[in-house]
Amino acid sequence: MRFWDRLLGLTAQDGRGMMTRSSLTQTLIIAAAFIGGAIVGRGFLAKQNGPTPKVSETMVDTRSSTSVSPTIDTAQERSTSSQQLWSSKSSTALKKSLDAILGDRDAQHRMSNLEAFINALKSTEYADALKRIRKIPGNNDRELASRLLISRWVQSDPDGALQFAASNRGYEYLADDVFQRAATTDLQSALERAKALPDPNLRYMALRGVLSFMAGTDPVGALQLAPSLGEFRGNEPLSSVIYRQWAANDPQAAALQASQDNTEEGWRSPVNQVVRTWASQDPTAAANWSLSLPDGGARSHSISQVVRQWARDDATAAASWVSAISPGSTHDTAVAALASSMVATDPTSAVNWAQSISDVTTRNNALQRISREVMWRDPANGNAILQAAGVPPNLIPTAPPRRGPPPGS
After folding, report:
1. CB count, 10 Å around CB of 262?
2. How far apart are CA 383 and CA 295, in angstroms?
3. CA–CA separation, 183 vs 172, rounded Å?
4. I want to staple 261 with a disulfide (CB 3.0 to 4.6 A). Which of 35, 220, 270, 406 is the partner?
């Protein structure tokens, strides 16, 4: 049975995943120790698994001369016992290799070895490697390793990546990369196949991939198409994906369109999606554009989003821009956002900024948000820190908030 027919027959699963992605160059630097280990591992695999499976047909329309990598003929799949044996030994080897690489304190050296490790993986090793990477404790290392591996997997074996995503709950996000790449070859074919996926979470991620590609070439067309693809409860609107991608390429055009789009409000509004991306590239331009919006919720959310993003990257520059705003509601909104972004690293400065807010209600709300986060981060000393900074006792929580994401995140 063809891979695509098999995929369309899979039972729907729950769960979803997301990942922000970026293009990463791949380095061909392979340590001698790893080469030796890889040779031994491959020799073992050849003995256990027999001949290489046959290639059947491609996932993307074969009319294209640059189709996505082929699928595996199910008649040639490995036996269950062979898979279990290989998985056990492969996981052990992958764990040792990754532990050694990630234990290197030299960031540049660690990065080179990580790229080499991923480049040397065979298609049969990607799944075990990704599962192992998901257990890496450090967020930065885990995210970087995941991005590198997924980029490599989707490039060399997109059908295998999609089959894995369809069969493993929590890995549906792989379909985003698979279909974004497929759309570069045959947009219409990729769109139709994404729409035909029975699992709503997998279908949502596949459509994200197709629309992300369209957003780079025809963002207006992508926005017109998105509403016809259905609603996906629990997921962000597909239009948000388009606006962010559009903003990465042409923020001013995206902002102009977003300011006329009232399909979503609040933090999910098109304007907020655009300025969040724009602020990561040119925060001054994004902030000044936000000031041009009419008074109201959209302007307030836009300014808050820009200042939060900006302060995380350059708190000094963000504070300078906020200080230049004339006193009033806009200034208070910007100060509240700045204070909120500073509380994790400098709670005293965050309190000082919040206390400069002129409107009493806005000021108290900001101080309460700061207090909740300080108490969340430091239950033992938070009360003393807040009182020393001048927060009125009635605005300080009497008990630390329950553990979980930081308040206001």
Report:
1. 11
2. 36
3. 18
4. 270
